[in-house]
Amino acid sequence: xxxxxxxxxxxxxxxxxxxxxxxxxxxxxxxxxxxxxxxxxxxxxxxxxxxxxxxxxxxxxxxxxxxxxxxxxxxxxxxxxxxxxxxxxxxxxxxxxxxxxxxxxxxxxxxxxxxxxxxxxxxxxxxxxxxxxxxxxxxxxxxxxxxxxxxxxxxxxxxxxxxxxxxxxxxxxxxxxxxxxxxxxxxxxxxxxxxxxxxxxxxxxxxxxxxxxxxxxxxxxxxxxxxxxxxxxxxxxxxxxxxxxxxxxxxxxxxxxxxxxxxxxxxxxxxxxxxxxxxxxxxxxxxxxxxxxxxxxxxxxxxxxxxxxxxxxxxxxxxxxxxxxxxxxxxxxxxxxxxxxxxxxxxxxxxxxxxxxxxxxxxxxxxxxxxxxxxxxxxxxxxxxxxxxxxxxxxxxxxxxxxxxxxxxxxxxxxxxxxxxxxxxxxxxxxxxxxxxxxxxxxxxxxxxxxxxxxxxxxxxxxxxxxxxxxxxxxxxxxxxxxxxxxxx
Length: 489
Ligand SMILES: Nc1ncnc2c1ncn2[C@@H]1O[C@H](COP(=O)(O)OP(=O)(O)OP(=O)(O)O)[C@@H](O)[C@H]1O
Ligand SMILES: [Mg+2]
Fold this sequence. Notes:
About 35% of the residues lie in helices and about 25% in strands. It is α/β, with parallel strands linked by helices. The chain has three domains: about 5-230, 3-Layer(aba) Sandwich (Rossmann fold), CATH 3.40.50.300; about 235-325 and about 400-489, Rossmann fold (3-Layer(aba) Sandwich); about 335-400, no CATH class. Strands 13, 16, 17, 18, 19, 20 and 21 form a seven-stranded mixed beta sheet that branches. A six-stranded mixed beta sheet has the order 6-7-8-3-9-10, sandwiched between helices. Strands 2-1-4-5 form a four-stranded antiparallel beta sheet, covered by helices on one side. The structure holds adenosine-5'-triphosphate and magnesium ion.
């Protein structure tokens, strides 16, 4: 399918999110779409997938002009998009969630089609229980489910908006092989990502957006530095501050057991030092989320102790944990972290201002302006959270974190951030470690884990490793452990 986007413009109020973008995408091509946070990538992809309407410009599919007024319109033409944040139905079973789309596109699936669905899952190395509930999946798994759904619906053009946040290296290999195979069958793949190694490995061509404009493009083979320069207008290097852990114990975990219907983890023991950063490595859904939520008091451990200053706080509610300076940031930012429909200022009022009968408008405005500036959020005090780009939502979420804090529990803290923003967020987090705040974070990015964590806990099939010093771990070794190899008997 040949796609031609001609002079696409899209405004959100005064924001010119897409500014005259002209782009032709040939069938069989895997096109990388790059650009800093807020550059307009998701907007352009949403226009092409019918989720939002362009203000002006033309979309030609196989030389015919098309009006795409809804995702169903696009799906009927064979264009499907996997979104940065899942567009699914958390309260439904996986089977129902798949069926909804089925009826939307007007194609009724038969029993043999369900067999085909299972085959697609298997091919990609994903395993969904069709009777399980969507909301019980992690964000990464929900992205996997959307991918399976789109392939099942037989799309010709597959748009992926940062699809690899939550999958392991092995699954990524399978996914990339599947995408290359699809491209070989003359399907078109559009891949939006902040991870340049992935673009390098997968794409045959890459375009770069900046401030709503298409500012350049490159053909494979790519040079990473060249792409960075094109995206940011300069080179970006990552700097690691020195190890920050002290000898003071921030939290002691003893014989901790966690259990829910998906996962059972037993006998976890470790001491977390003040100012230390511990990374959680593992395949998506291996218990990292449950572990973080248990340490945040959001989930009850089934046994063991969580000691703070020698006091066991296991069993207390999350407010007691918060009183002791323990705060949690979830990965599902729009569902669990931010409140859609509320402005930035209202978020700061909720999280920062004193709880009184009346809101001190002057004070809340001041807090808002300071945070927007400090966290470099592309938005205004009156902007609603869902109007921010993915990366800017993540900045907002992190800007809500209390300071001072004893322990920050962060689930995929740099999900959706461009390289520059991710570096910058880590410089802020590391600064807080210097002030003796400890951090435990999960990430699907091995590079991020080995680079920023002082020690790493590896999760695999209900087991958690000893804390391993990251200085002695290579990405290869970590990758093997995540896949269940190299574990002590
Ligand atoms: N629904 C909306 N309402 C108002 N403004 C919006 C809306 N969606 C996007 N914008 C604005 O349009 C601009 C481009 O956003 P977009 O989501 O396309 O960026 P992006 O390149 O995908 O960034 P990221 O890498 O952070 O996901 C941003 O300034 C954003 O705040
Ligand atoms: Mg985006």
